[in-house]
Amino acid sequence: MLRRTAQVMAALLACHGALAQPEISVVERQPLALPATSSHRLALTVVHLEGSGWTRERAHGALREAAMIFAQCDIGFTGVEWVSLSTPARYLDFYTPAARELARRHPVPRPAVYLVRDTRNRPAFDAEA
């Protein structure tokens, strides 16, 4: 009887943990217009995490700079999809296991760029692939 009670309690705790996970929700999804006249084209998804400190203006500036760099290789963006997510705080700072979990829990078309607050990886880099 005691063993059966322990099994039921373990099952309830497992269900509670699964139900208690904070949700990831889409706050906004919008295509961004970037003119491309290049012969090679790239579709890109930009995932903005609310609370990361990235503003739309800052992200657009970074995209324009990236477009100029890619243009030197005759690569242009065919389209950029902006996806803004509300996520639990553990995703705001880049950490490989958490990043993989986020990508698995909320898949987006690839290639994708994630705008995060900072990194927990050591050594820290300005960007990671």
The averaged pLDDT comes out at: 83
Q: Assign an overall shape.
A: globular
Using only C-alpha atoms, the radius of gyration works out to: 20 Å
- Write the element-wise H/E pattern from the N-terminal end onward: HEEHEEHEE
Q: Note the main sheet.
A: 4 strands, mixed
- Proportion of residues in helical segments: 25-40%
What is the CA–CA distance across the termini? 52 Å
DSSP strand content: 25-35%
User: Spans with pLDDT under 50 lasting ≥5 residues?
Assistant: none
Number of helices: 3
Structural class: alpha/beta
Strand ordering within the main sheet: 1-3-2-5
- Count the E strands: 6
Tell me what the structure shows.
The structure is a single chain. Helix content is 34%, strand content 29%. It has 129 residues and is an alpha/beta fold. The protein has a four-stranded mixed beta sheet, with helices on one face. The protein has a two-stranded parallel sheet with strand order 4-6.
